[in-house]
Design goal:
single chain; about 325 residues; alpha+beta; seven-stranded antiparallel beta sheet; 16 strands
Length: about 325
């Protein structure tokens, strides 16, 4: 039995349209799917702990995966249903995961989705049906390009969605069992709870749109530990007008793994605090400025009211 619970209050739907991450996507001319690698904005950090599984869940004609297993193109010729792909490594209990994909093509059609699912997701059944695959049953969770989140056949509006040039982030906390989506590195609020009941989950993409492409640009993980708890506290104490001096080892760890959570411009290595070049390099990550509210929401165990809250009980 599953109970889906929603927070009391009216859903505040965003009136803004989905936007790309940067200005590289201002031109509207059509581009062949083989030539969608012109923009590298937001890809400054080279961290790739997993990639897309080369032996896809669909027929080979429905999914094309690049040689480096980062870029996925669905229905390269024409679409006759729903195609999906998953990561080549499971997301395990007691670990934190964060990954990002960039939408390289125009969004249209029944659905293009980013999310997670178990190894029980029934993809062959949807190969010749146009459907929102992720979230149609209890085995998967997904964010649609239209802005809704889905699980167990229930759909609710969560954000303005994403478009060509958007960066979609997924933060899966398998310690607390929560799932949160990011659009252009802006948190959308925790959408799902109690994901630990699955044991393990896989990153997943699905699409019904012909010649739709997405690229994995970042994938990292870290095990739940005292370091993570310390990062939560640091995220709430560092302000825009303060500088946090850290030992070189801790500074490097936070810069490498918690760059979306902590304001790197507020963290200074004791070893390099007088070197302007180092400070300039630190300020390049991330590209989008982080606000105090973003830092707080990223690490809240019990979040403030968001557009949507799901709680699943097995």
């Amino acid at each position: 039995m599953m109970v889906m619970k929603r927070k009391v209050g009216k859903v505040a739907e965003s009136e803004s349209d989905p936007r790309p991450y940067c200005l590289c996507w201002s031109q509207k001319e059509p581009v062949e799917w083989q030539e969608l690698n012109g923009c590298s904005c937001g890809e400054e950090i080279d961290m790739m702990e997993w990639r897309w599984q080369s032996s896809t869940l669909n027929l080979i004609s429905q999914v094309v995966i690049s040689e480096d297993q980062k870029q996925v193109t669905f229905h390269p010729f024409y679409s006759s249903g729903t195609a999906a792909v998953r990561g080549d490594a499971p997301m395990q209990i007691n670990c934190h995961y964060y990954w990002e994909v960039k939408m390289l093509s125009e969004t249209y059609g029944t659905d293009i989705m980013v999310g997670v699912g178990t190894n029980k997701v029934n993809v062959p059944e949807s190969q010749y049906r146009f459907t929102s695959l992720l979230g149609q049953d209890m085995e998967s969770y997904g964010l649609s390009y239209k802005g809704s989140v889905r699980h167990n056949g229930t759909e609710m509006k969560e954000s303005s969605g994403f478009c060509r040039g958007s960066i979609i982030g997924v933060r899966l906390d398998m310690w607390e069992g929560t799932l949160e989506f990011y659009i252009n590195r802006q948190p959308q609020g925790i959408a799902f709870y109690n994901l630990r009941r699955h044991g393990s989950l896989y990153p997943m993409l699905c699409s019904t749109a012909a010649q739709s492409s997405l690229r994995l640009i970042y994938a990292s993980s870290w095990r739940a530990s005292l370091l993570v708890d310390a990062a939560k506290i640091l995220a709430t104490t560092v302000r825009n007008d303060s500088k946090l001096r850290l030992p070189p080892g801790l500074w490097h760890t936070l810069k490498s793994h918690f760059w979306l959570t902590l304001p790197t411009e507020g963290c200074v290595s004791e070893e390099n605090e007088n070197e302007p070049a180092v400070k300039q390099k630190m300020k390049k990550v991330p590209t989008v400025p982080l606000t105090p509210g973003m830092r707080r929401r990223h690490w809240l165990i019990l979040p403030k009211p968001t557009f949507m809250m799901h709680q699943t009980v097995s």
